[in-house]
Amino acid sequence: MSTSNLAAQFQADFDPNSQEFSLAGVIRPHSADEIATSLSMLREAIDNVRGVLYINVKRLVQMNNTAFHAFARVLLDACRVRSDLRFVVVTSSVVGWTERMFGHLNRIEPQVTVEVYDSKFYPGQSFVENTSFIPILRTQTKMTWRHERTILPRHGMRPGMAMADICCGIGDFALLVRKEFQPGRIVALDHSRASLAYARDVAAGFGIADIEYTYGDASEMLLEDNQFDFVTCRHSLQIFNQPDVLLKELYRICKPGGRVYITNEKNSHCLGEPRSKSIQWTYNEVAKLFSHFEMDVELGPKSRRYLADAGFDDILVESFMVTNLDGDPQDFADVITAWENVYAGEMAVKRGDPPEFIERFRQGFRDHIFAALHPKGYAGWPIWAASGRKPL
Amino acid sequence: MNLAEKEPVEAAFEPLLQFEMEMGAFLSDWQHCDQVSSFMARMISHNRTDPVRHSNFFSSALNELLEVSFRGGSPDGQIGCAVYRQGAKERVKLTFPCPPGQRQFYREAVSKTRRGNAYARYLDAISTDLAPSRDVVLLELAINFDADIRLEESDPPSITLVVDLPLEGIVS
């Protein structure tokens, strides 16, 4: 038995500042002796904390019974001598067995509780995972696809590739890519069960069975390292409060030599004529509103920096403008109506904005629609597409 | 259960994947449990509703079974593992050579998974045992993976653990 292989498969860490002991990776030892160092680290952590110790197993991909019993033993022994201490095991809703396994400890010692890490931990996810948004997401993808179908090959998309679409939403982009580029494999991951159910339903309706839709947390994926030639993540870094963490995961699952492709907006640059001033004011406020909920919808032009900081090379960046002249102007107007409903009708209300602000905020969206539908009008929504290569 | 009663149930399961290996070679490296379970899980899960999460669950369960055979198997003969599917359920048939003295142990271990006090026994094991015994591992499969476990002894000196795993329902 090679213990060095085992050590390479998992990590144990203790952060005294957050009083958090974390386990990640695959822990399948033959005996508890092989994980003695990690068990000692947990014992020391227990000796050095007050009040509560968090046991973070969100990134624990596998743990055999030998390891579980050994770690459980340390926790249960500590409960018996440290009645002042609580243990909170933080599991992921993605890895269902961890919740079941660690949940038993609470039956033995009530000092040990289990919390399931879910979308509620992300500041703005409840807005973007709202199922009422689904029809408009389809329209948005239809509008951006007119541009992206020609952009993707410039960023390295080729037939036969193993591809992952992370934060796939309702899965329509994966369907379009499958039809246009015939990848050898497509995995499509999202954190919204409702969106995935919709995606599977649509795929089944089209008789498509080879897109692997999977429920997952983009910042802590079950997908293995170095698996995909092409990883896409569209309009998602900008609504995630830690885009660098997400990008690190995209980097991890991408093969060396493969590429990660991201698209993001700069909302304050949405534009329209006539009524440009009102439109501009509203979209400046959109950027501030998202910032309040820890989302950066101005991220588009920052893509180059984010990709470089994440370790990518051969970075390509380009921008395109979705406009009312792409197809049916009513599609553009429908998208703006949906934005108005969510941004002004829900997010601004949640932030506690006064009615007069919300009315002015709404007016900008209405003016954008006016521009889109005006026979001589022009309305635009700018998007930045960027990609980087994972070094060989 | 006699053969005539068993066959109709068996026929409903569709074979998916099978692997065989000399037991001596299997026992030469503990990592084989991890490697075989990960590979087989990935292969059989590709057309499940959520292939990635199904594979994770299935690998977890299969690894425990392979570890049971690693700890309790004897080096002469072959280990064989076959996976079948019926609807939302996978069936694992794990056959491995087992010393004669161990057969009664497996009979009792499998029997314990069906008893009313299975959960209490499992909690007691977590609470008091220094390391999980093989019978506790089977209990854990029944409790955490809703596994239905039985034993076939048709071809001594090997035994076959037959484990039905309704993971599709748990995952999705």
Layout of helices and strands:
The complex is a heterodimer of chains A (392) and B (172).
Chain A: H1 3-9, E1 10-15, E2 20-27, H2 36-48, E3 52-56, E4 60-63, H3 65-81, E5 86-92, H4 96-108, E6 112-117, H5 125-128, H6 134-154, E7 162-166, H7 172-181, E8 185-190, H8 193-205, E9 211-215, E10 228-234, H9 243-253, E11 254-265, E12 271-273, H10 276-292, H11 303-309, E13 313-323, H12 329-351, H13 355-373, E14 378-389
Parallel strand pairs in A: 2-3, 2-4, 3-5, 5-6, 7-8, 7-10, 8-9, 10-11
Antiparallel strand pairs in A: 1-2, 11-14, 12-14, 13-14
Helix pairs in contact in A: 2-3, 6-7, 6-12, 10-12, 10-13, 12-13
Chain B: H1 3-11, E1 14-22, H2 23-26, H3 31-45, H4 51-72, E2 78-86, E3 89-97, H5 103-112, H6 118-128, H7 134-144, E4 148-152, E5 158-165, H8 167-171
Antiparallel strand pairs in B: 1-2, 2-3, 3-5, 4-5
Helix pairs in contact in B: 3-4, 4-7, 5-7, 6-7
GO molecular function, one term (chain B): methyltransferase activity
Protein name (chain B): Ubiquinone biosynthesis methyltransferase UbiE
Keywords (chain B): Methyltransferase, Transferase, Ubiquinone
Can you walk me through this structure?
The complex is a heterodimer of chains A (392) and B (172). With 392 residues, chain A is α/β, with parallel strands linked by helices. Chain A folds into two domains: 3-117, 2-Layer Sandwich (Transcription Regulator spoIIAA); 125-389, Vaccinia Virus protein VP39 (Rossmann fold). Helix content of chain A is 45%, strand content 25%. In chain A, the strands form two sheets. In chain A, strands 7, 8, 9, 10, 11, 12, 13 and 14 form an eight-stranded mixed sheet that branches. In chain A, strands 1, 2, 3, 4, 5 and 6 form a six-stranded mixed sheet that branches. In chain A, helix 7 (172-181) links the parallel strand 7 (162-166) and strand 8. The longest helix of chain A is centred in the C-terminal third of the chain and has 23 residues, at 329-351. Chain A is globular and about 75 Å long. Chain B is globular. Chain B has 172 residues and is of the alpha+beta class. Chain B starts with a helix and ends with a helix. In chain B, 51% of the residues lie in helices and 23% in strands. The longest helix of chain B has 22 residues, at 51-72. Chain B has a single domain, classed as Histidine kinase-like ATPase, C-terminal domain (Heat Shock Protein 90, 2-Layer Sandwich), CATH 3.30.565.10. Mean pLDDT of chain B is 90; it is low at 1-9. Chain B: This is Ubiquinone biosynthesis methyltransferase UbiE. Chain B: One of its GO terms (molecular function) is methyltransferase activity. Chain B: Keywords: Methyltransferase, Transferase, Ubiquinone.
